[in-house]
Amino acid sequence: MHRRIYIVTLVALLIMPSSAFAWRAKGHQIVALIAERHLNDSTRDKIKAILPKNDTLAKASIWPDEVRKALPQMNPLHYVDVPRGATTYDRERDCPQRNGIVEAVTWYLNVLKSTDSPLAEKHIALDYLVHLVHLTH
User: Fold this and answer.
1) Comparing C-alpha atoms, which of 104, 102, 82, 84 is closest to residue 94?
2) What's the pLDDT at 133?
3) Could you give the number of structural domains in the chain?
4) DSSP secondary structure, 38-95, as one string
5) Residue 50: which of 135, 132, 108, 137 has the closest Cα?
């Protein structure tokens, strides 16, 4: 009897859509909350200066998914296609258009580091960076 329950449960789990296991917004928010707890005061102050008043990293982390339908050109930033069997990321092979998650993380870090980036650009960069770092884990 226990074996039958085990088999039925296993089959049900295997045929469920994979999105049923996704954390979606909650996952992004949890990772952002954990990150916030580990920030030093200097970094926390810099983030507060970028985010709108009373905004949090948790809220920022879900914005890219909220605008995904309106900005479909940003969808490739959520992933990178590394061929099966590959042991390393190769930019020329895996992201020739430079629009995958690895390139996006680098780009957004550079925007945040730049003293020339406008505040609005830094805000978008921070939102995407917090969002994408969760996806890489």
Assistant:
1) 82
2) 85
3) 1
4) T--HHHHHHHHHHSPTT--HHHHHHHHHHTTTT-GGGGGGG---PPTT--S--HHHH-
5) 108
| CATH code, domain with 117 | 1.10.575.10
Residue 23, C-beta contacts closer than 8 angstroms, at least 6 positions apart: 30
Q: Is residue 14 part of a domain?
A: no
For 21-50, the pLDDT digits (tens) are 456 788 888 888 898 899 999 999 999 999
121 vs 133: which has the higher pLDDT: 121
Angle at 17 between CA 135 and CA 9, to 5 degrees: 115
pLDDT at 123 over 60: yes
